[in-house]
Amino acid sequence: METSQALITNNAVILGVLATILGFVFYTSNLKRGFWGKFYSYVPALLMCYFLPSLLNTFGIIDGSNNDVYTVAKYYLLPACLVLLTLSIDIKSVMGLGKKAIIMFFTGTIGVVIGGPLALLITAAVMPELLDVTGPEAVWRGMAALAGSWIGGGANMVAMKEIYGAGGDIFTIMVTVDIVVANIWMAVLLYMAARHKEIDARSGADTSSIDRLIERVQHFESQHSRKPELNDLMILIAFAFGATGLAHLVADIAVPFFIEHYPGLNKFSLHSKLFWIIVLVTTIGLALSFTKARNLEAVGASKVGSTFLYILVATIGLHMDITKIVEAPKYVVIGVIWMAIHVLLMFIVAKIIKAPIFYLAVGSKANIGAAASAPVVASAFHPALAPVGVLLAVIGYALGTYMAWICGQLLRMVSA
Q: Which of 56, 46, 69, 303 is CA-nearest to residue 157?
């Protein structure tokens, strides 16, 4: 590692500073009254988890590109996070939501996958200079990372950033696009949630399945929730890091093999160790979801996974230079067009199959925002429906790695 000119260079101190920042953000964001209550009604807590560490990098307090904390978070916490976020998927419960819910969810995913390349084509026709940038700061690489967020969530966004080699500057810009565009759509969905009865009445949607769903969710929660013991948490850690270790082992074998025997497959990321690790841990998590390990969600599997995720988020913030945000407006245009394609497709399909607006809203936010906002939108319809948002969002985590990778390949072709 090169000698850093930053004020803080000790990795332990850097980790301590980031942990303190996260604790501060979570503490203040849960204060519902006074200054902080008003502040977080306008500024998302997730944005602060990115933004505050970025100040440390921007003003030379910590060198984000010259420390080991991010490397540890990327290669150990990210895979462990993905295992814990995917092992709790209950396929039976998802199918029990009805085919319309599943159709709307996958429509949202497809809207993101095809919307990205189309948005880049449309925007580049007016601003061709967007395609002039090559290397790590190429627009398509940043959009591939954003696709990870808009199909899965923060962990998938980071995974795509590393798989496609997006630079810190373009990633910073896309984080801004994510926050701005996704929150505008969030506001629209909450508005529709408040008027869902009249919207469904006009569309002729059958909402009887929603009532049955509310009853089923309430019963499930009352039967399964319990206080985690030390034994539960240690088993969670065993699954998370055991799967991570296995993925590293396989990746250490697969990468040299493909480099030696299939050099042409580098363009499909098969020479990337992180690509193999992310795909493997996601697959392991999905396999575990068919076993009793799925019940670990009752003792907080996704909460522990989210803890790892937020540490990762903070280390990503250390790579940001906030002075680059002034370049964001033209990229926001890409995001708005991208989101418009996603939304238009959702409404077309919802009208064809007469899906309740609840399925459209949660299906969309399970992609755009994932577990951070899908349960919020779901609970806007009824508090008992919040777990439904989480359930679909977890599927988004599982699909995010695969579908965002496909979107990235399409973006690469458009930019060629």
A: 46
